[in-house]
Amino acid sequence: MKEEAITFYENYGYYYKPFWQSAYFKFSIIFLIFIFLLILILYLFFKNKKKQILPWQWALQELEKFDFSKFNSKKDYKKFYFDLTCILKAYLEKRFDWSTKDKTDDELTVFLKEKKFDETLLSGIEKLLQGALTIKFAGQDILKFQAEKDLKFAFDLIKSTIPIDQINQKTK
To answer: Distance of CA 157 to CAs 60, 101, 103, Å?
Structure first.
């Protein structure tokens, strides 16, 4: 009878290899990770492509955010002029590839003169940049009137620097 006795280990091998340690499973996981990364890269690429807007569209969107009904003090108007000049400098940099963000207001006007920027627009920019100086001395009603006028000029400036072919595409 001893010869007929079969032990557990005689029927099955001493070593059992779990499925997650097999080469097939490891290859499948690597393949799935690769597919996931590929989908993620494609998603991010197309997501960013849709979000890219033209410089004038960006600037007009930023200018539309100003709400004069919330302005109560000279400090609010001072921040308005600071933000307005930052938007215009960023717009000029994006639109014309000029380094304007790092320039002071006076340096900006000199720079635009050197670049032979349109004279009427340049004089309007100079008046707009002087608006920050009037904050110190002007009354509340004059501040609001001047700020609205300068904001309207900023809109006009951006609209007048849109390339003609882009304007034609809008109307079609």
So the answer is: 10, 17, 19
In sequence order, which ranges of 52-139 are alpha helices (DSSP H)? Answer: 55-64, 74-96, 105-114, 119-134
Average pLDDT over residues 58-75: 88
Residue 22 DSSP class: S
**C-alpha to C-alpha distance for 14 and 71, rounded to whole angstroms:** 82
What does the block give as tokens for 30? 């690597």
Residue type, 58: W
| pLDDT tens digits along 85-102 | 899 999 999 988 888 888
In this structure, are residues 95 and 56 in contact, taking their beta carbons and an 8 Å threshold?
Answer: yes
Task: Record the pTM.
Answer: 0.66
Beta-carbon contacts of residue 160 (< 8 Å; ≥ 6 apart) = 118, 121
The span from the CA of 125 to the CA of 12, in Å, is 88
What the block records as the tokens of 14 is 């001493």
Burial class (CB in 10 A: 0-12, 13-18, 19+), 58: middle
In this prediction, residues 16-27 reach a mean pLDDT of: 84
Cα dihedral sign, 155-159-161-166:
positive
The answer to whether 105 and 85 are in contact (CB under 8 A) is yes
d(CA 122, CA 142): 23
